[in-house]
């Protein structure tokens, strides 16, 4: 396949842009080197620099790094290189992920980059029709080189007895903390019971919670541990918050979007599927190009909505947290948190959907009086006090910032000074001009 066509497959493989290590020094397969070189990927991230040599050396690995740092490339490139030296025709690699969207994305990346090596993959996930099940069964029984799967659907196939994973050499758990949050611990353990004990196991997680430690001790052997810096939004993200009452949120979002016609790609996160549906309906009523996406949609519809947003046919996507991890959509201008996320780490993942690959973006959070303490916890995590923008006059006053033990008022300017110098004053002026 000509390299120019390969490029069309991996344009969304933005993890690769971070790679700067000299692959020629690592013995990476020449065809992989050609594809990477053609795309001009020269800049590295710490997770790739640390993980790739260990994977190539055959070590088990537990790596902790937030979304957007290049984790997919950190495991996929060395695995493809290792598979290039193996005989095809057997399933040698199993990648387990929490969502169907992430499964499809990784499968597409394998198809694009792995094609030059004759490596094939299949994505196993729920929500399809009978034909989809038949295609999955055929691939599982005939031996795709790499299987990328969500736990529930893979177990459905395993329970029927026709899946044989005795040739698996590599197991990767991507977004492991997310899978455990969803409740997939028992499913993961059951899947692993079908695999050979002698294998290389790689676990990637955004956090190193106690339950991750428990799983690590159970399924990894003498693993190398990699921890990459505390989770923080990228420097290119301009962050701010509005203190508002719940009944002001819809009007505020409508005004923010109306005031910024040049923002062509906007992603709004809501805490529940019901809110996603209601907000998307409200935006459509106001003549905005908006679509909801959540697990309530059939798989075909979810793919259609996601593709519409990626191609800019849909300007606004309203989503639950299923979209906050592992999905790479380039050039998102604005992230709006309709609700403060329950977990401070989830804020980082949501905000990480913008300002990808050294770009810039804006992230706004709507904070009601009940969510102020949660938002304060987020500020502690990211070690930054986020600028609070006054509510537009026509929408009325919002609640005052009140947290037990915190007496500073952000509207008086004191709250937004950096603890360690910097140009926070200029940062705030930027937001006053923008919003």
Fold and architecture overview:
With 435 residues, this protein is of the alpha/beta class. The chain has 2 domains: 3-227, 3-Layer(aba) Sandwich (Rossmann fold), CATH 3.40.50.300; 237-434, P-loop containing nucleotide triphosphate hydrolases (Rossmann fold, 3-Layer(aba) Sandwich), CATH 3.40.50.300. It contains 17 helices and 14 strands. The protein has helices at residues 3-10, 23-26, 30-39, 46-56, 71-83, 100-114, 130-142, 151-158, 176-182, 185-192, 210-219, 249-258, 273-285, 299-310, 344-351, 372-382, 424-434, and strands spanning 61-64, 93-96, 121-124, 146-149, 170-173, 200-205, 224-227, 237-243, 266-269, 290-293, 316-319, 334-337, 361-367, 387-389. α1 (3-10) packs antiparallel against α6, α4 (46-56) packs parallel to α5 and α8 crosses α10. It is globular and about 70 Å long. Mean pLDDT is 80; it is low at 1-20 and 407-427.
- Total tally of structural domains: 2
Please name the CATH architecture of the largest domain.
3-Layer(aba) Sandwich
Q: Quote the CATH topology of the largest domain.
A: Rossmann fold
Strand neighbour order, sheet with most strands: 3-4-2-5-6-1-7
State the name of the first-level CATH class of the largest domain: Alpha Beta
Distance between the first and last residues' Cα:
48 Å
Average pLDDT, rounded to a whole number, is 80
Tally the beta strands: 14
CATH homology superfamily of the largest domain: P-loop containing nucleotide triphosphate hydrolases
Low-confidence stretches: 1-20, 407-427
């Amino acid at each position: 396949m000509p390299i120019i066509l390969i490029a069309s497959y991996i344009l969304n493989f933005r993890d690769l842009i971070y790679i700067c290590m000299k692959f020629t020094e690592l013995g990476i397969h020449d065809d992989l080197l050609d594809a990477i070189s053609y795309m001009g990927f020269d800049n590295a991230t710490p997770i790739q620099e640390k993980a790739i040599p260990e994977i190539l050396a055959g070590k088990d690995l537990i790596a902790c790094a937030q979304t957007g740092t290049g984790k997919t490339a950190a495991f996929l490139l060395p695995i493809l290189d290792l598979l290039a030296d193996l005989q095809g025709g057997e399933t040698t690699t199993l990648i387990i992920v929490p969502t169907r969207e992430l499964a499809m994305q990784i499968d597409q990346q394998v198809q694009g980059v792995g094609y030059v090596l004759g490596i094939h993959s299949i994505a196993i996930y729920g929500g399809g029709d009978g034909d989809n099940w038949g295609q999955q069964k055929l691939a599982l029984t005939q031996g795709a080189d790499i299987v990328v799967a969500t736990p529930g659907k893979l177990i459905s196939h395993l329970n029927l007895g026709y899946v044989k994973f005795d040739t698996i050499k590599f197991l990767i758990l991507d977004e492991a903390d997310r899978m455990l949050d969803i409740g997939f611990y028992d499913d993961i353990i059951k899947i692993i019971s079908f695999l050979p004990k002698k294998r290389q196991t790689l676990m990637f997680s955004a956090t190193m919670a106690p339950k991750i430690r428990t799983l690590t001790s159970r399924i990894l052997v003498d693993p190398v541990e990699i921890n990459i810096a505390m989770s923080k939004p990228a420097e290119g993200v301009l962050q701010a918050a509005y203190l508002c009452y719940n009944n002001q949120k819809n009007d505020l979002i409508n005004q923010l979007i109306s005031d910024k016609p040049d923002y062509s790609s906007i992603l709004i996160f809501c805490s529940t599927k019901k809110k996603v549906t209601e907000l998307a309906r409200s935006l459509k009523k106001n003549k905005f190009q908006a679509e909801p996406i959540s697990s309530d949609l059939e798989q075909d519809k979810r793919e259609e909505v996601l593709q519409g947003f990626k191609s800019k046919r849909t300007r606004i996507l309203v989503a639950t947290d299923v979209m906050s991890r592992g999905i790479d959509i380039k050039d998102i201008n604005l992230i709006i948190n309709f609700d403060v996320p329950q977990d401070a780490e989830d804020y980082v993942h949501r905000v990480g959907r913008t300002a990808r690959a050294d770009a810039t973006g804006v992230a706004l959070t709507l904070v009601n009086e009940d969510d102020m303490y949660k938002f304060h916890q987020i500020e502690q995590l990211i070690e930054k006090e986020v600028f609070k923008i006054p509510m537009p006059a026509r929408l009325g006053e919002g609640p005052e910032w009140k947290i037990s033990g915190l007496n500073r008022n952000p509207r008086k300017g004191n709250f937004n000074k950096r603890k360690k110098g910097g140009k926070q004053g200029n940062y705030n002026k930027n937001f006053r001009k923008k919003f």
